[in-house]
Amino acid sequence: MSLPPVPSEQGAEVGRRIGVGLMYGLWRPRVLGAWRVPTTGPVIYAVNHSHNIDGPMVMGVAPRPTHFLIKKEAFVGPLGRFLTGIGQLKVDRHSTDRTAIAQALGVLESGGVLGIFPEGTRGEGDFASLRAGLAYFAVRSGAPIVPVAVLGSSERRGRLIKGLPPLRSRVDVVFGDPFEAGDGSGRRTRKALDEATERIQKQLTAHLENAKRLTGR
């Protein structure tokens, strides 16, 4: 069976340029710590998720083009074709989506950047409940994880459009120090992935707390 094609990095770069224009046009992003992102080689962004704009915001302000794993429900009609065109990955959250897994690993194997919401869906954005997918990709690929905190996107006061933060409001995006998820053994057993998930959760929670202190959120 042939492997699915790796999403286009050129497409993701187009998405980044569109994203930066939209994000800076509609809101006031403040980006901190982008220099921490490795300039080359595979990287996984682990992004907290409390709002619809979190993915586009990170895609727009990140220093490298990003391929996000996005729920398949978003890939409908023209929007679906657009997301595919800008290098984003469709994933079925309710099953073991082997095509999405292969494409995500392909992004990392080719030295690209994979974006993941490790909580699996929108919630409080506090990294309180992580799925094992992030640990699997990190351990399997050996790619470092860069924690990313998006703060202010869930602000409710002053909204003009339901479901979006107030236009021209400040949204902080804080990149943390890259870290390795594995223990160095290369093990990919269920126990090893559970231990990696625990390590990841501690790192992401600490980064989020630090980001809140740093931004005063």
From TrEMBL:
One annotated GO biological process: phosphatidic acid biosynthetic process
Protein's UniProt keywords contain Cytoplasm: no
Name of protein: 1-acyl-sn-glycerol-3-phosphate acyltransferase
Record keywords: Acyltransferase, Transferase
CDD domains: LPLAT_AGPAT-like
Cellular component aspect of the GO annotation: plasma membrane
Originating organism: Streptomyces griseicoloratus
One Pfam family of this chain: Acyltransferase
Annotated Phospholipid/glycerol acyltransferase domain residues: 43-153
GO MF term set: 1-acylglycerol-3-phosphate O-acyltransferase activity
Segments passing through the bilayer: none
